[in-house]
Design brief:
By secondary structure, the protein is an all-alpha fold. 67% of the residues lie in helices and 0% in strands.
Length: 184
């Protein structure tokens, strides 16, 4: 029964959709409303610059960090030099194989080999057997310790190639053992 004073009979009834829409616009319901100040901030130039500098920092590591933070993250600059050397090797791999061999030789002499099975698999194709032997030893260690989660598909072929073409008997035997370990 309608209350006295209500004109329910004269005004059209609202649908549930219209009622819900009104509730979303009300300040008293506590519903989620778009935060226009946040949207304005995210569209601002300063915010975009801030986000792009954060992206550069997390992608590039210590080399793209601010001066004060750079000394804390990489005080000697060794990580930055190592990263640049790996990038140069990867770039030369596709462009100039002779330059690639020189860069890999210098890298293996100066740096500790990284725990990257893909990079180490590529190093197995180096013309100097000493470099291939170091890469093979590092790969063998990674596989033995269970640190090589993803094995490159080309590793089996590289190991087979070493078995057939290496002059050093120990290198051939190491390649054979690793191939067998990977198969099991």
């Amino acid at each position: 029964m309608p209350r006295s004073g209500d004109d329910d009979g004269n005004r059209p009834k609202k649908s549930w959709r219209e009622i819900d829409r009104m509730r979303g616009q009300s300040r008293h319901t506590g519903g989620e409303r778009p935060d226009h100040s946040r949207e304005r901030l995210e569209r601002s130039q300063a915010y975009r610059e801030y986000k792009s500098s954060l992206d550069r920092f997390f992608e590039g590591g210590a080399s793209s960090a601010p001066e004060g933070l750079r000394g804390i993250l990489d005080p000697t600059g060794a990580k930055t030099a190592r990263t640049k050397a790996i990038e140069a090797i990867q770039k030369a791999s596709a462009e100039d194989r002779k330059k690639w061999a020189e860069l890999v030789t210098a890298f293996v002499q100066d740096q500790e080999l990284p725990p990257d099975p893909y990079l180490l698999t590529e190093f197995l194709g180096h013309p100097k057997e000493a470099v291939a032997a170091k890469a093979l030893a590092r790969l063998d260690t990674l596989v033995a310790e269970g640190q090589a989660k993803k094995i490159p598909p080309s590793l089996d072929q590289q190991l087979r190639s070493l078995e057939l073409t290496a002059d050093d008997d120990e290198l051939r035997e190491s390649a054979r053992r690793l191939r067998e370990r990977l198969r099991s």
